[in-house]
Design a protein that fits this description.
Distance between the termini: 13 Å
Shape: globular
Helix content: 55-70%
Structural class: mainly alpha
Radius of gyration: 15 Å
Low-confidence stretches: 1-17, 19-28
Strand content: 5-15%
């Protein structure tokens, strides 16, 4: 997202980029968050959407960190499941899919390598986190 296509919204956590109303549909197709979904979920309230995103990034970081550390199966199940649901809620589909992959491994429904799944989830989270903070996409 180019900064000329967005407006800055201040919050108590940070300053982040949020799409202009006229750009929502076009921008929804290219970023790590489906802004059209988020706009629908927050009834078009830009301030509410920004608050939801800021809360998400703080809470999601805790779950990502929990999945990166040694822990019990129950802790990992809870972290993966919660991250998956909250990512779906804001329209972070790639992150939700990565969390689902972690959840399937923990539940014994996949034999994919844990380290690879966590690395993919971490990368997807970083992309979402950068987007929420208004940082340019990594190249």
């Amino acid at each position: 997202m180019n900064r000329q296509e967005a407006r800055t919204v201040n919050s108590t956590e940070n300053t982040a980029v949020f799409p202009l109303p006229a750009e929502k549909t076009r921008l929804a197709q290219g970023g790590p968050i489906d802004m059209k979904h988020l706009c629908h979920y927050t009834m078009g309230d830009v301030d509410l959407a920004q608050e939801v995103l800021n809360l998400f990034r703080v809470q999601a970081r805790l779950y990502v960190e929990a999945l990166q550390k040694p822990g019990s199966q129950d802790d990992w199940k809870l972290a993966a499941h919660t991250l998956k649901g909250s990512a779906q809620g804001i329209g972070a589909d790639r992150l939700a899919e990565c969390a689902r992959a972690c959840e399937q491994i923990v539940n014994g429904q996949s034999s994919a390598p844990w380290d690879e799944a966590v690395a993919g989830m971490t990368a997807a989270f970083q992309e979402v986190d950068d987007f929420i903070q208004g940082k340019p996409p990594a190249t």
